[in-house]
Every structure is written in C-alpha cells, then in structure tokens.
C-alpha cells in the first residue's frame, strides 16, 4: 500500500505538472545592476513599488506592471548604503531571490545580466547567451562529494523552442564572486566548460531549486576574459551598449513567453 509520503509526493508532482500546462502569468526578472534594470523598466513601462514587499530598511527595489498577459516583477538589489555601488554578487542575489520568491510566487524566473565571455568558446562582445546550465567556480572543497556540492551544477529550465525561435547563442555559465579571474578560478571555469562568466547566476539557481521555481539565464557579453583588454576597463566601456542589447533580447524572450505554458518554451 502507498505510504502517506508517497501520496504527498504524487500530489506534489501532479500539481507541478498542472502548473506546467497553464499559461505563465507571473515573471520574476532578477538583475544585479541598475544599468541593466533601466532599459527593461522603460521598455515594459514598469513602476517602482512604493509599498515594498521586502523587509523595511533593505535596499532592494521592485518595479512591476502588466505587459501583454504577463505580470512582470523586475527586482534589483539596490545600492550598498555606505558605498553607493550596486549590491552585485552571490550573497546579495541569493537573499533577494529568496525574498522575491516568497513574496511573489513567480511561475518563471529570468536572471538577466552582463557577463564576461570566452572567445576560445565562441563568445564576442554584445552576444546574448541563454545558459544551458550554471555552476560555481570559486567554491573549491577537495573532499569527495563535497567537491560536487561546491561546484553546484544546476540545469536551467529547458527551452528548446525559445532557443530555436530567437537568435540567441547557448553555452554554460560559471559564477564566482570576483570580476577578475585568478588561476584557480580559471582552472575551475575550464572544468565547468563555461562560455560565459558572471557573479550571480549559480546563486539564483541554488535558491530557485530550493523553492522549485523554473529559471532561465540570459547573459550579454560586456568583456572578453581571454582577450587582451583589462576586464574592468572593457566592462565599463561596453556596459551601456551591451545593456541595450540585453534589453532587446529580454523583450524578445518575454514576447515569446507571453501566452505560453512552461512545456511550450
Ligand atoms: N565596476 C562595476 C562593477 C560591476 S560587477 C560597476 O559597478 O559598474 C560586474 C557585474 O557584471 C556583475 O553583476 C557580474 O555578474 C557581471 N559581469 C560582467 N563581466 C563579468 C566578468 N568578466 N566576470 C564576472 N562578472 C561579470
């Protein structure tokens, strides 16, 4: 006879399958930087939330509105209260993702942002990638099984039709908390077989998996990691133009998603 646990598992699976067949209604767009957020806020005509869904005092900002049939929530982590720079990186984005899912119960998460690209893997400045999977490159724990826990490899939600329809590249994304790349990081990024490198993706994936929310990653290349130019300089030089391309790509993705259910993506 089936145990109560088995019955609960079966009920949960049935609920997930049911949700996958309903058109997606609520999108959570998570971005790390204000410069990445603003083209999207303008495009979707979102307004800033005056009555915050987040704990009082945190710098996190939600913009929201209806776009076609979709309730769009764009979240960015605001600025560091002492230093005035964007709260980029895995810690900030993990907390933000957790709080946003709890408050908004989205049907799909899109983590959109900029990234470094590897020209040896075919990346060029301005390319927009839909990541096939994500992993960490700065969590080295050389003990059996803990090593795999550290790498934290997770698949993005499969979107074969989206990939076919839109002109996006695909590749693996590797995440760490540094903009530069140490030799240790480089070895892990190579082991991860990554084409693009960012500071948030795998952290968003971790929280999304905990709370069972399907997630995709759209990353636009601001700098070539295995090129000649210093990363920080190249990043700042290309940021404005590349965030405009990112905005266009995210708009195409959202237009494609509108009216569809998860299994149609
Ligand atoms: N000096 C910049 C710092 C931003 S940090 C500023 O405040 O304007 C870089 C951001 O872009 C992170 O959110 C990260 O996800 C992404 N990024 C772009 N290029 C990257 C690279 N080569 N390595 C890691 N992250 C990168």
Topology, please?
Elements: H1 4-21, E1 26-30, H2 34-43, E2 47-48, E3 61-67, E4 70-76, H3 90-104, E5 108-117, E6 128-136, H4 146-151, E7 154-155, H5 160-165, E8 169-175, H6 183-191, E9 194-198, H7 201-210, E10 215-224, H8 231-257
Helix pairs in contact: 2-8, 3-7
The structure holds S-adenosyl-L-homocysteine.
How would you describe the overall organization of this protein?
GO terms for molecular function: methylthioadenosine nucleosidase activity. Residues 26-254 form the Nucleoside phosphorylase domain. By secondary structure, the chain is α/β, with parallel strands linked by helices. The chain has one domain (24-264): 3-Layer(aba) Sandwich (Rossmann fold), CATH 3.40.50.1580. Helices cover 38% and strands 24% of the residues. It has 8 helices and 10 strands. It has a 5-stranded mixed barrel. Strand 8 (169-175), helix 6 and strand 9 (194-198) form a beta-alpha-beta unit. Helix 3 packs parallel to helix 7 (201-210). The chain is globular, with a radius of gyration of 18 Å. It starts with a helix and ends in an 8-residue tail after the last helix. The chain binds S-adenosyl-L-homocysteine. S-adenosyl-L-homocysteine binds at residues 32-33, 85-86, 88, 113-116, 179, 197-200, 222-223, 225, 231, 235.
Name a few traits of the molecule.
binds S-adenosyl-L-homocysteine, 10 strands, five-stranded mixed barrel, globular, 265 residues, single chain
Task: State the shape.
Answer: globular
- How far the N terminus sits from the C terminus, by CA atoms, comes to 37 Å
CATH architecture: 3-Layer(aba) Sandwich
Separate helix tally: 8
Protein name: Nucleoside phosphorylase domain-containing protein
Pfam family, one: PNP_UDP_1
InterPro entries: MTAN, Nucleoside_phosphorylase_d, Nucleoside_phosphorylase_sf
GO molecular function: methylthioadenosine nucleosidase activity
């Amino acid at each position: 006879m089936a145990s109560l646990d088995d019955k609960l598992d079966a009920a949960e699976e049935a609920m997930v399958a049911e949700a996958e067949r309903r058109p997606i209604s609520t999108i959570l767009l998570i971005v790390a930087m204000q410069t990445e957020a603003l083209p999207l806020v303008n495009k979707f005509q979102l307004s800033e939330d005056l009555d915050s869904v987040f704990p009082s005092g945190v710098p996190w900002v939600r913009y929201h509105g209806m776009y076609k049939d979709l309730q769009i929530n764009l979240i960015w982590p605001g600025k560091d209260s002492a230093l005035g720079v964007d709260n980029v990186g895995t810690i900030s984005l993990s907390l933000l993702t957790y709080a946003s899912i709890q408050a908004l119960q989205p049907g799909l998460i899109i983590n959109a942002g900029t990234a470094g690209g590897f020209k040896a893997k075919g990346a060029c400045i301005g390319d927009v990638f839909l990541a096939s999977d994500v992993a960490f490159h700065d969590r080295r724990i050389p003990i059996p099984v803990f090593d795999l826990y550290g790498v934290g490899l997770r698949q993005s939600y499969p979107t074969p039709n989206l990939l076919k329809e839109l002109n996006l590249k695909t590749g693996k994304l590797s995440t760490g908390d540094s903009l530069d790349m140490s030799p240790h990081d480089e070895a892990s990024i190579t082991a991860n077989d990554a084409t693009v490198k960012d500071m948030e993706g795998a952290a968003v994936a971790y929280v999304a998996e905990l709370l069972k929310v399907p997630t995709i990653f759209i990353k636009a290349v601001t700098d070539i990691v295995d090129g000649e130019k210093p990363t920080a300089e190249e990043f700042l030089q290309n940021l404005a133009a590349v965030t405009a391309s990112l905005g266009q790509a995210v708009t195409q993705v959202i237009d494609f998603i509108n009216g569809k259910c998860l299994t149609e993506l």
